[in-house]
Amino acid sequence: MKKMNYQNVKGTQDYLPNAELIRRDVRRTLEDVFIQYGCKPIETPILNYTELLASKYAGGAEILEEMYTLTDRGERDLALRYDLTIPFAKVMAMNPTLKLPFKRYEIGKVFRDGPIKAGRFREFTQCDVDIVGIDSQIAEAELMQMAIDAFERLKLDITIQYNN
């Protein structure tokens, strides 16, 4: 009988209690700020149709090479999400009756099969906040202020740079 080799897949990691408690505290802090600004939580599937995830880049971007793809028993082409933006665009397209402006946040796992090096992972948590349905720079200013407030609560010193 062969001895099992217990190790993580390269580019993934376990979070033991001390680290996971910090991660959850950061997440709660961020969610508190987002909610304070009127953002609503959503959760989208990790598994999507490959065609949907490839649509943003029209086959040209290197991110397509980093998608984890698979075929299910029904021979459908599927992929693990590599960001939270395209799944959110799908939510908006599927739910045209959502009241605008719509402010949402999502914190979830994403996956990329890119080169593994220090500080780069295949599986990681991403945090997105978006405001849809406002034709004004006020939304951008609000998102920047939200970021400032979140980092202040986390006691992290930041500088925000922007352009037009």
TrEMBL record:
<keyword id="KW-0436">Ligase</keyword>
<keyword id="KW-0030">Aminoacyl-tRNA synthetase</keyword>
<dbReference type="InterPro" id="IPR041715">
    <property type="entry name" value="HisRS-like_core"/>
</dbReference>
<dbReference type="Pfam" id="PF13393">
    <property type="entry name" value="tRNA-synt_His"/>
</dbReference>
<dbReference type="InterPro" id="IPR006195">
    <property type="entry name" value="aa-tRNA-synth_II"/>
</dbReference>
<dbReference type="GO" id="GO:0004812">
    <property type="term" value="F:aminoacyl-tRNA ligase activity"/>
</dbReference>
<dbReference type="InterPro" id="IPR045864">
    <property type="entry name" value="aa-tRNA-synth_II/BPL/LPL"/>
</dbReference>
<comment type="similarity">
    <text>Belongs to the class-II aminoacyl-tRNA synthetase family.</text>
</comment>
<dbReference type="GO" id="GO:0140096">
    <property type="term" value="F:catalytic activity, acting on a protein"/>
</dbReference>
<protein>
    <submittedName>
        <fullName>Histidyl-tRNA synthetase</fullName>
    </submittedName>
</protein>
<dbReference type="GO" id="GO:0016740">
    <property type="term" value="F:transferase activity"/>
</dbReference>
<feature type="domain" description="Aminoacyl-transfer RNA synthetases class-II family profile">
    <location>
        <begin position="1"/>
        <end position="146"/>
    </location>
</feature>
